[in-house]
Amino acid sequence: MQQGQVTGFAAVMTTVAMGLGSAVAVGDLRILAANISLVRGGLGFSHGTTIFVSSLATLTLAASVLGAGVLGDKYGMKRMFLAGACAAVAFGLIGAAAPNVVVLLIARACIGVAFAFLSGLSLAIMNAVFPPERRAGAIAWYLAAVYAFGVLPATVGSLLAEQFGWRSGLLVTPVLATLVVAITLRYVPETQSSHRGTDLPGLLLIAVALVGVTYGISDLQSGVDLAAVAAIGIGIGAGAAFVWWELRCNDPALDLRIFRSPRFNAVVSAGAANNLVQGGSMTMVTFYLVIVRDLSTWAFALLLIPATLVAALAAIGAGRAAARFGNGTVVVAGLAVLAVSLLVRLSFRIDTPIIVVGAAMALTTIGGAIIQTPQTTVMMSSAPTHLGGVVSAVKASVGGTFYGLGAALFSMLGIILLIRDIGPKLAAAGVSIEQAGEILSTTAGKPGTAVLDPDRTAWVISEATAGVLSAAHTLNLVMMAIPVAAIVVVAVLFRRAVSERSARLSA
In angstroms, rounded to a whole number, what is the distance separating the alpha carbons of residues 339 and 52? Predict the structure, then answer.
């Protein structure tokens, strides 16, 4: 099949379709997470089932994302992207209309697979349909669209769920996915098919690896237990087996030779560090706003809107800066902004002006946007065109895994630090950890009941507030080490890339 390319208005609409498609996948997961208590109340399922419902789409997305990239390369990215968008419409409607939890679970499992095609192929399509001389700029605009559209589904979905019930909130996904289908059909050209084989053993092994690690990481948020450790262990084992198989397979799902490039490894490392910090810092800010400032989760969403809009502009600026100063320089600059944002958070107190909180969130998001633009450009340019879908899927899987790891790891560390700080005080006052947890859940606007008298309840909240602030400051210092270390790694690897290129030219 002949490769098509876009210009003019078609180029604009292609960027809109791909950016919105990626945003739909992310936004839907946030809609369900933000309104899971309403869904639980509507369908009447248990707390254990609640966790499974919340994470099921994430698990099936992780299991499918590399396979989506392979199928996109083999059968045409537009075709597979449309299949994902149409599936998102169908299973989004089924999920919104689900009469019971079984139907909802089936819908969520299937929609996660659909999201794998949206998030895994949108970037690859951008890379394929723009000519080389316009590709870097197009990717910058794509990332800007992802950031600009990113808060739309979750914000609108949560508002509808609050006003009209959870089913209306879940309808945001099929509506936006329908728009993606319409624009894609009209403006996006098909990509070349590679006629490559399908490495089923490799795809099965990486699916087990990603599901195991993703499930284990998510389970860690409620504490270290045998199931979480076992899942992570199985995931790591499957990952090792995947590497062993891919090195021996004649037609591997993922050609591991791309990891021989120092530039590729540098931006993957930067991306992993960025997502680790993004996941952890967003979790910490949510705790700060809800527990310390006694605000609703809506405050977080409102502060995130201007942050993401500014980040969209930063993504475009990063693309232009990379063309002038080099990708390595811009990646390091983004990591530096990320470190500065964490430094600002050390100033957070109970009475910190909300504009300072918003500025810190904006800096974190801007740092991520600056990193992602050159990261994406380098990753996509490091692979042959026929492997664009797979490389795009690698970026999606690395981003999702490390974002989840950041959220789980720093949530767990935060809880450990909080218990260490206030645990002895609670015990001395005759208050159990479980009672304190229920009080804080009620304070955060979640279902709960008054378990203590008003005076002791107020005391628990006061002690928890001080403990959360102390834990947050410690964790921010720990998180600062991640972008600082990444700066060193990126600088070394980009310098090695320059040296290797000079050696090749000399030879």
Answer: 34
Q: Which residue has the tokens 């910490």?
A: 284
Phi first, then psi: give them for residue 348, nearest 5 degrees: -65, 130
In this structure, the dihedral spanned by the alpha carbons of residues 35, 41, 44 and 45, taken in order and rounded to 10 degrees, is 40
User: Looking at residue 48, what is its pLDDT?
Assistant: 65
Report how far apart, in Å, the C-alpha atoms of 26 and of each of 37, 50, 173, 273 are: 19, 19, 10, 19
Q: Interior CA angle at 452 toward 451 and 456, to 5°? A: 150
Q: Which amino acid is at 92?
A: G
Cα 403–Cα 312–Cα 365 angle in degrees, nearest 5: 40
Indicate if the alpha-carbon torsion angle 156, 160, 161, 166 is positive or negative. Answer: negative
Q: Tell me the fold of 262-507.
A: Growth Hormone; Chain: A; (1.20.1250)
Residue 263 near residue 327, CB atoms below 8 Å: yes
For 422, counting Cβ atoms within 10 Å of its Cβ (0-12 exposed, 13-18 middle, 19+ buried), the class is: buried
Q: What pLDDT, on a 0 to 100 scale, did the predictor assign at position 371? A: 94
Residue 395: its pLDDT value, please?
Answer: 84
Other CB atoms within a 10 A radius of the CB of residue 425 amount to: 15
Structure tokens at 120: 């895994």
Q: DSSP labels for 374-416?
A: HHHHHHHHTS-GGGHHHHHHHHHHHHHHHHHHHHHHHHHHHHH
Cβ atoms of residues 64 and 57 within 8 Å: no
Ranges of the chain with pLDDT below 50: 1-2, 442-450
C-alpha 40: how far from its chain's center?
24
CATH 2.60.120.970 fits 1-196, yes or no: no
Please give the single-letter amino acid code of residue 384.
P
Percent helix, strand, coil in the chain, to 5, is 85, 0, 15
Amino acid 1: pLDDT = 42
**HSE-CB of 103 using CA atoms within 13 angstroms:** 13
Distance CA 304, CA 124 (A): 27
Supply the DSSP symbol for 2.
P
Question: Looking at residue 433, what is its pLDDT?
Answer: 59
Q: Tell me which residue has tokens 């210092």.
A: 477
Q: How far is CA 154 from CA 28, 53, 173, in A?
A: 7, 17, 9
Tokens coding 39: 């869904």
Give one word for 353, left, alpha or beta, with left for phi > 0 and alpha for psi -120 to 50. beta
